[in-house]
Amino acid sequence: MSEVKKQKNCGGFIMKSLKFATLATTVLLSGGLLAACSSDNATESSTSTPESSVASTTEDVVTSASISDSPEVIANALSADGTWIAAATADLTFDQDLVVDGEFHDKDDASAAIYRKLALHTQDDKFNILENFTLTAPKVIVNSENFTVFYGTIKGDIEVNANGFSLIGTKVDGNITFTKEEYKESADLDKDGKGATVTGEITVAE
């Protein structure tokens, strides 16, 4: 888990981030919110999050997250052999179900709480949301406890098989099915009141 995961297709982003950092445009992770590359899906910069930064340098960001515009890289990052946090830098389309699996801890610290994050947006150094991205998949299957999705849009259904599933500012264009009542009871589908929405049905399968 502590091994640095280097993604070839994110090399350009990393180099640009290093350059921007020297100009005082620091790339930040804010409790799982990532300032990454840009897309065409911009939101108003007045949208912000109060969460404090957990990585103040570009090096910290690169070594603690999987950052990519590649569906394959993000799928691997969310697997049982992946990272505690993954961040998209563009819209992502998956032909097969996307599975979030494995147990991970906040900031990859085994002594910290169990926590898993996916960022579908970019932000500036004041935590204002700049761009949101869309993740499209037949289904997102959540097997990791305390998995949180930050902003952006998930287009497809979500199946939750673990406690602590949360959405922060995320739009879900699909249904959410919890396989146990306890998973539904422990979920927060609009954490921090950031306007997360679900267009489909929210049900319990059992």
TrEMBL record:
Residues 40-60 are annotated as: Disordered. Residues 40-59 have a biased composition (Low complexity). Residues 1-35 form the signal peptide. Keywords: Signal. This is Lipoprotein. It comes from Enterococcus aquimarinus.
